[in-house]
Amino acid sequence: MPLKKVLEVVARESGAQVLFYGTVAGNINIDLNDEPLEDALRQIFQGRNAAYFYASLPAGVGTSSLLALTEIHLFANANEASDPSIFDSPARPSAAIRASRAMVQVGTAGKHSVDTELPSRLAQAQDVQGRKDAADELGKSWSEDAVEPLGDALAGDPSAAVREAAAQALGETWSESAVQPLIDALAYDSDALVREQAARGLAQTAGEEAINALVFALLGDPRWYVRDAAAEALGTIGGRYATGALARAATNDPDDWVRETAATYAVKR
After folding, report:
1. Which of 172, 195, 251, 267 is the most buried (most CB within 10 A)?
2. Dist. CA 218–CA 187, nearest whole Å
3. What is the full DSSP assignment across 162-199?
């Protein structure tokens, strides 16, 4: 995964502000599951100089005082220390970590170049399975070069199965450029499975500009599984507007599963 994306995930999940001194570049290959936040950070930023800043939280009834991680400073190059890049956490009532354990999940890194034949296969293969396979391979490349052909397939392929595969692959690119094609598919695609996968892709790209489209899907899509995917995506991205929509769905959605999902993420926020 690109290190820049890791920093964005850390900021979003911890509520802390991340400041990176030096150029944000390169990729890491790491597998973490349900790790304490600081243990995960030490693994993610192994080999880099880092400083962690904390603030005291008032002790609640029957509890001891807590320290909340509020800032993380990473130093890549001492010569660039006067020019930090900042990754802010979403606005929250406090900078406290939501829970004593925070999970940062990152997948294993794949290759980062695109087979030059894949875009043409995606656009021109006569059989649906061939186009689906091309979409899958483009997603695994984690390359910006994969976004445009996947977006074209998501917008225009006559097969819903191919469009669904393209939506999934766009999410796997973790690219900011993938957000708009996924928003358009969530809002306009005629197939519910494609809309569901578009919502899940938006959760992976975590673009805050997708919140409005996800809220409309959560509160208005006729298919429960699309609304459920939108609830998960809003819970991942966060923000006050997302939390309000989740709270409304937790009360009003006609489907038990969607209400449960929305309530879970609304409480976490």
Report:
1. 195
2. 11
3. HHHHHHHHHHHTT-GGGHHHHHHHHHH-S-HHHHHHHH
Residues 52 and 40 sit within 8 Å (Cβ to Cβ): no
Taking the C-alpha atoms of residue 233 and residue 218, their distance in angstroms, rounded to an integer, is: 10
Q: What's CA 186's distance to the chain center, in Å?
A: 16
| Residue 3: predicted pLDDT | 75
Distance CA 88, CA 16 (A): 7
Give the integer Cα–Cα distance in Å for 263 and 249.
Answer: 8
**Single-letter amino acid, residue 31:** D
Report which secondary-structure segment, H or E, holds 19.
strand 17-21
On the 0-12 / 13-18 / 19+ scale of CB atoms within 10 A, 82 is exposed
pLDDT surpasses 70 at 102: no
pLDDT in tens, 204-259: 887 788 999 999 999 999 999 999 999 999 988 888 888 899 999 999 999 999 99
Measured CA to CA, the distance from residue 79 to residue 82 in angstroms comes to 8
Q: What is the mean pLDDT of residues 92-115?
A: 35
Q: Return d(Cα 245, Cα 264) in angstroms, integer.
A: 13
Concatenate the DSSP letters of all residues of 34-62 into one string. Answer: S--HHHHHHHHTTTSEEEEEEEEE---TT
| Residue pair 177/147 in contact by the 8 Å Cβ criterion | yes
Assess contact for 46 and 100: CB atoms under 8 A.
no
Distance CA 141, CA 147 (A): 10
Structure-token match 């004593």, residue found? 100
Q: pLDDT (tens digit, 9 = 90+) per residue, 107-161?
A: 333 334 566 788 989 999 999 999 999 999 998 887 888 999 999 999 999 999 9
The two structure tokens encoding residue 145: 């070069």
